[in-house]
Amino acid sequence: MTVITGYLYAQRHTAVVTDTGVNNIMSMFYTPNIKVYRGIDNYIRIEFKNRDQKRVSMTDHTANIVILDKENSVAYVERALTAIDPRRGIWEASITEADLLNLDSKFYSYALKVTDPESRTAPAYADDNYSANGVLEVAEGVYPTFTESTTEAFASGNTGSTIAITPYINRNTAQHTAQVYFSSAFTGTLEVQGSINPSNSIQNADFTTITTKTYTAQTDNDYFNFTGVYSAVRFVRTTTAGTLSQVLYRP
Q1: Which of 165, 181, 185, 208 would bridge 251 by S-S if both were Cys, CB 3.0 to 4.6 A apart?
Q2: If pLDDT is split at 50, 70 and 90, which confidence band does 51 have?
Q3: From CA 132, how far away is CA 223, in angstroms rounded?
Q4: CB 213 within 8 A of CB 190
Q5: Long-range pairs for 3-10: beta carbons < 8 A, 24 or more residues apart
Q6: Are strands 34-37 and 82-85 parallel, antiparallel or unpaired?
Q7: What is the pTM of this model?
């Protein structure tokens, strides 16, 4: 039997705040990149220390994390940190699934802003060079990137276009979904055809009928599923009355 080990641990990162009571120069240290994943909520533990690498009390302070894209000069996300143990300078950043929804998978910068009891705001430094920015990587890995459905609007007639798909994605359990829209009471049929020939050489004769849906005065949207491994599919509309306006298809 193959055994796979999964590790559960919190990402811990150090940030340095200025402390006038410490005269030492900054000790050399390295803060690793923060790595967050699309599709889930991410929690990062932030530990605030002084220039002597000792914990500092952050009681009565507030802190925020900001995600920046320096290439486009945009600040995408700003979130308040949650105090875990402020006397020991331990806080937590929460980067949610929604925060990352519209961000591409790439490297960003992050900054930490700290506000003291006198309402003075200063950066927390990410390295020994007084850099106010660290590196945050947005990565895929938990869920695949969302892909929009293919729209078939029958622009070229009642036989829709050939939709090439990758048959190996779901193997023999492949499930396909079609959402059907009507702009007026439709009576007629919608035929789903598929082919297993290579998608770059498919002819009309290569398609065979997978399933046929029959409608009578249909006005409400309809959806249905079908299964099978195909290299391409297409939809064929036959109209007696009304209008079947489009089909949204997802393999």
Answers
A1: 165
A2: confident
A3: 51
A4: yes
A5: 10/43, 10/44, 10/45
A6: unpaired
A7: 0.57
